[in-house]
Design goal:
mainly alpha, Growth Hormone, Chain: A, 18 helices, about 0% strand, disordered N terminus
Length: about 500
């Protein structure tokens, strides 16, 4: 909820939250919230509201996310259409450097971006980012040297930095914890659809080579960048603001959103970023473990996105055929992401699905590391496992963390930290596939396998830690916090003893 909402949680009603929680959970696995409040919810009005929110929020943010991903990785499609030779990117790992330069400032700016977003209207901030990075991407089609390309990649990272953490932050303020996975995953499959669409688009645009004197790879950037900029220009009228500011909702609907979130996990707020709040954020082990898990999966997802056309080209497919063969890989990733997300919300459980993605990725890397013994079809199948596990596992890790953070500042900073670790994954993903190691790419596949193991280990430690903490709170071992001053008690977020973790 936004800053001007009043969440005066006194010591007495904080104790009521503790009593009403009773430590109860939806299952023995601890998959429930553990919080049961007495708020009356009109189910008919709630169903109508959810449909309205889905139509308002998801389509436009899906489009933003897809264009973000497409504009970030279309350099991989352009590379095999002649960009590599024309800009001499095949010398001294210049292509890898161009990929890498996107990420350093991207990583640094994600947390400040979400801190700024808390104080402005998302309907202006997010479309503004989209418009400016679209212009930058369009300009990439006119570069004449790899040095100019380097500059534009840095600028692209600056303007894309705020989108993903901003989308996670804004949407998490509208939905209950166990209806959020499938909705966030609907947006995250934009990466897979963007990858598939990018391959098809690159295949079609390749035939424009020579039009107006521009090579086919240049048209990839010009057309996609212009489309992105247009979307950013017209979307401020569509994008939602914070729930209490949203002009698309009436007051009854705003009240219903507030009551639903209170009913889901209690109104455990963190709206003041004082020294105590900063300490609670920095020392929250969940944020760092959730970030490591996301980084592990994202290394696989981004590395395959940057290099999949090149890898398939090395398998023996011609450039245009390699573009087309990227499409099924991404479409399977879409189906896997959506299927796992719906099952995860239905079962109110995340962890086992994360482990499934971990296993897929590990098997895929195992096949890639032994590709000299495999046919082209088997090697191609390994790409499905790596991309599917990496792209489906990422949103599961994001929602696992988001479900277990409470309070405006906690979610703003926590989601930004997690996504910034995804930027670190992008740094690794852009460097590990080296030209001199083609076609085996031993470093790329070995590092990918190691990061997949991180993606499996970090959520496991996080789940065990939350299980232990829930049990301590059930036994009243954190109740001394209820005697703290009201101002501090009202700013605890998920550190409040009445909050229960879910996995």
């Amino acid at each position: 909820m936004a800053d001007d909402e009043k969440g005066n949680l006194s010591v007495s009603n904080a104790a009521e939250f503790k009593v009403s929680a009773t430590g109860a959970e939806d299952s023995e696995s601890g998959s429930g919230s553990g919080i049961h409040t007495e708020i009356e919810i009109d189910k008919v009005a709630e169903k109508k509201l959810l449909w309205k929110l889905d139509l308002l929020i998801l389509p436009i943010l899906f489009l933003f996310y897809m264009m973000s991903y497409l504009d970030r990785v279309n350099i991989g499609n352009a590379r095999i259409q002649g960009m590599d030779k024309e800009l001499e990117l095949n010398v001294d790992n210049r292509y890898n450097i161009a990929l890498l330069l996107f990420f350093p400032i991207y990583i640094v700016l994600e947390i400040p971006s979400n801190m700024l977003l808390k104080h402005v209207r998302p309907s202006l901030f997010l479309p503004g980012l989209v418009f400016f990075w679209g212009i930058i991407n369009m300009c990439t089609g006119f570069v004449q040297s790899y040095k100019t390309l380097y500059v534009l990649r840095v600028l692209l990272g600056i303007f894309e930095a705020g989108l993903v953490p901003g989308v996670i932050y804004v949407t998490s303020m509208y939905y209950r914890r166990h209806e959020y996975q499938k909705r966030l995953s609907l947006m995250f499959v934009a990466t897979s659809i963007g990858g598939a669409f990018g391959g098809l688009l690159a295949y079609g645009i390749a035939h424009l080579g020579g039009q107006q004197g521009y090579a086919g790879w240049r048209w990839i950037f010009i057309i996609e960048g212009a489309l992105t900029a247009f979307i950013g220009l017209v979307s401020p009228f569509i994008v939602v603001d914070w729930p209490d500011q949203c002009r698309h909702l009436n007051q009854d609907e705003k009240d219903l959103i507030r009551n639903r979130l209170r009913d889901d996990g209690g109104e455990f707020r963190m709206d003041k970023l004082d020294s105590f709040g900063v300490k609670r954020i920095i020392l929250d082990w969940k944020i760092w473990l959730g970030a490591l898990g996301y980084m592990g999966f994202t290394t696989s997802g981004l590395a395959m996105s940057f290099f999949l056309p090149t890898v398939l080209n090395d398998f023996g497919w011609a450039s245009t055929d390699a573009q087309v063969h990227t499409v099924p890989v991404y479409l399977v990733a879409v189906a896997l992401t959506l299927g796992l997300s719906w099952a995860s919300d239905a079962l109110k459980h995340r962890y086992s699905f994360i482990m499934f993605c971990f296993l897929l990725t590990v098997v895929g890397y195992g096949m890639a590391l032994n590709q000299e013994h495999l046919s082209r079809g088997a090697k191609y199948a390994g790409c499905f496992l790596i991309a599917g596990g990496g792209l489906a596992g990422g949103p599961l890790c994001i929602v696992l963390l988001s479900n277990n953070l409470s309070g405006h500042w906690k979610r703003a900073v926590g989601s930004a930290v997690q996504v910034s670790f995804g930027g670190i994954a992008g740094l690794m993903g852009s460097l590990i596939f080296m030209e001199r190691e083609k076609p085996d790419y031993r470093t790329g596949y070995t590092v990918g396998l190691a990061m997949a193991c991180v993606a499996g280990l970090a959520p496991t430690i996080m789940m065990v830690g939350m299980w232990i903490e829930n049990r301590k709170r059930d036994r009243g071992e954190r109740d001394e916090r209820l005697s703290w001053p009201t101002e501090r008690l009202n700013n605890l977020g998920d550190y409040h003893p009445g909050f229960r973790f879910t996995w």
